[in-house]
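Example (one chain per record):
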Amino acid sequence: MSTQTTTQLQQLAEFLLSNLSPLVKANDIDAWQENGTLILSGEDKGADGYQVAKWKHSAVIALERFPHRRVNPYNLLAMVAAFLIDSNWQRDEYGLEDPQLDIDVVSKDHATVLIELQLLDDIDLIPDETGPVPFNGERFRVSLVPLNIAETVDVQQKGADV
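Predicted structure:
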């Protein structure tokens, strides 16, 4: 079972770093969350798992020493947009605002870029006798609930009256 250890913010920051490297170094990227809202759910996901909440928050990614003359800044904008579109996250359903960017040119070769966006992380629980989270009279740990996807479907059709 997959442990829920990578947030959407971490995924986006890692995506940007991997696509901007080697021109942007790991120590030139910083990311943090702020102003969050815990959206309570308690949804039974089957497989003995629950989604107890969604974590809606503002996220900030700061790129220092962004080489705006060597990397077309529109490539950075396209990367952010492409990542969010490809991720299929429920942006519209939860009213997440589009990303905002602030670019501050600090020298002829470098700029500081702040990317601010709203993200939404699922907080799922699965049973674990030694888990840290008490819920519904049992112990759980934070982890993605495994999805059981049918591989075959039997369809029966009744004859139509003519």
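Caption: Strands lie at 29-46, 49-66, 100-105, 111-127, 133-135, 138-142.
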